[in-house]
Write a structure and sequence with these properties.
Pfam family, one: RVT_1
InterPro entries: DNA/RNA_pol_sf, RdDP_mobile_element, RT_dom
Number of strands: 16
Helix content: 25-40%
CATH topology of one domain: Alpha-Beta Plaits
CATH architecture of one domain: 2-Layer Sandwich
Structural class: alpha+beta
Largest sheet: 5 strands, mixed
Shape: globular
Radius of gyration: 26 Å
Protein name: Reverse transcriptase domain-containing protein
């Protein structure tokens, strides 16, 4: 109940979240007893099975096409609480069964992780003088076409408590909805035989369970819920295309078996390499005797990935988006009128910096990013300069986009596995070189050698721990950035306990708590 947010739309029972938030202790006890009775008897009120559906338009889609809208289910607030209770109980069990490549709506995982992993593998292919082919898969109405019987079978394989599985399936059965328009008109009641409701807390987890057993492929898979991608690197075009076509055939057969449909018209293929002579060559990947569309800079999880990973087109789009939003913020501020400073700051952080810093660890080392983050007035774009000019935030004269990002980070800056071969410190792979260079932020020479990195060049890098562990870690480095940067080498879990409790760090209690949480992250 504490996670309910006021101001949200009610369901068909017209019970608002505020009614539940401000209820008495007696009412809370009665509601818990009612939930227990529903779970034991495997029965739910009919009103909870009905949802009000609103259609949100998809960006850059024709308004007259019904497929250009995304249906969102407005569920009853008491039913949402019950779903959260179920979610909290089955999340540890389900999360342990999900594959590493699936990061969708999982604790401690984000879209930036998947984009970073994909870019890292593409950079690896560049270093090996290979070409990387990527296919971005698009599923037609993925959530709405989930087969209930197939989901029931996979839940039984994942969750050992069969009574809980029966209760979950009971929440999905006999569901119905009414479509509401912005003008207040409603459609007739329609029943659902398949699918999971969009807007439900359980929906992302149930979909992850439904596709958690994707078949093994030669290509590496990247998933964030229904946003799937596969990548294969080979020295020649022929070998790369043959491998991708074979893997696509395997995945399409799996999707058809479980009644999911691949949208051939929306799925995209792209090739990544450094050969200028072959820049116009298109990757040939076929599905059902149809060649997939080839794009030079497809968008994956909100980031455009061009052929050489220069991120030029992505930064141009971000620049245009941020510039328009800064212009909007400026209209709210004036010398003698306008919104308060607090309102302007909140609006700036929500509209401007959220867009400018999205997936910044991925593209921040691009040469185009260095140009765009300069504070020189003659350069193209500077977010902090524009925001400061609007009167929303005083960032100082010596601040650029990268330092502003670093200053907004918590004191625990980096916790990374860094056991890398020594030869990786010298090659041109910027992403991995920055990860290795982070442990030399104080200017201390590393055991593996290589150029030292100044403290002001350190930026946040958030990478899934399993990626670098695959290479064979030999030690852990814990770095903390405050007024002066401290560095400490940690050999094992016991040594980490000694470092955390050491007086030499001089850290406050909040930072100590973060260290204890980080220990679980490093050694689990």
């Amino acid at each position: 109940m504490s996670k309910l947010k006021p101001g949200k739309s009610p369901g068909r029972d017209n019970i608002h979240p505020e009614f539940v938030i401000h209820q008495s202790t007696t009412t809370s006890g009665w509601l818990c007893a009612f939930y227990t009775s529903c779970y034991q008897r495997l029965k739910l009120p009919k009103t909870w099975r009905r949802a009000s559906v609103i259609a949100l338009p998809k960006p850059n889609k024709p308004a007259e096409d019904p497929k250009s809208y995304r249906p969102i289910s407005l569920l009853c607030v008491p039913f949402k609480i019950l779903e959260r209770m179920i979610h909290s109980r089955i999340e540890p069990v389900v999360d342990s069964q999900l594959p590493r490549e699936q990061a969708g709506f999982r604790r401690g995982r984000s879209t930036a992780d998947q984009v970073t992993l994909l870019c890292q593998d593409i950079e690896d292919s560049f270093q090996n003088n290979e070409k990387a082919g990527v296919v971005y898969l698009d599923l037609t109405a993925a959530y709405d076409t989930v087969w209930h019987r197939g989901l029931h079978l996979k839940l039984l394989r994942t969750i050992p408590d069969r009574h809980m599985v029966k209760f979950i399936m009971e929440t999905l059965s006999n569901r119905s909805f009414i479509l509401q328009t912005s003008s207040g008109q409603c459609s007739r009641l329609r029943r659902l035989k398949n699918g999971v409701p969009q807007g439900s807390v359980l929906t992302p987890m149930l979909f992850n369970v439904y596709i958690h057993d994707l078949p093994d492929t030669v290509s590496r898979k990247y998933g964030y819920a229904d946003d799937l991608a596969i990548m294969l690197s080979r020295p020649t075009w022929k070998a790369m295309e043959e491998g991708l076509n074979e893997d696509m055939g395997t995945l399409v057969a799996y999707l058809r078996r479980w009644r999911l449909q691949l949208s051939v018209g929306k799925s995209v293929a792209a090739a990544y390499h450094l050969s200028t002579r072959e820049a116009r060559r298109e990757l040939q990947v076929h599905v059902d005797n149809k060649c997939l569309e080839v794009q030079q800079a497809p968008k994956y999880l909100g980031v455009r990935l061009d052929r050489t990973l220069s991120f030029k087109q992505h930064l141009e789009e971000v620049k245009a988006k941020v510039t328009s939003r800064v212009a909007l913020i400026r209209r709210l501020a004036g010398t003698t009128w306008g919104a308060s400073a607090k309102t302007l700051r909140i609006s700036t952080q929500a509209l401007v910096f959220s867009a400018a810093e999205y997936c910044a660890p991925v593209w921040s080392r691009s040469p185009h990013a260095r140009k765009n983050c300069s504070t020189d007035p003659t350069e193209d774009w500077d977010v902090t300069h524009d925001v400061e000019a609007s009167g929303c935030l005083d960032v100082g004269d010596d601040c650029n986009g990268q330092s502003l990002l670093s200053e907004s980070l918590p004191e625990v800056l980096l916790l990374l596995w860094v056991g890398e071969p020594s030869h990786l410190c010298h090659h041109a792979n910027t992403l991995r070189r920055d990860l290795i260079g982070c442990r030399r932020a104080c200017g201390y020479p590393d055991a593996s050698g290589g150029k030292q990195v100044a403290p002001d060049e350190v930026c946040q890098q958030h990478v899934h721990r399993g990626r670098l562990c695959d290479i064979g870690p030999d030690r852990i480095v814990l770095e903390v950035q405050r007024k002066s940067t401290l560095i400490q080498t940690v050999q094992d879990e016991d040594h980490l306990e000694q470092v955390i409790s050491a007086d030499s760090f001089g850290l406050n209690k909040e930072v100590m708590k973060k260290f204890h949480q980080a220990k679980l992250f490093l050694f689990q």
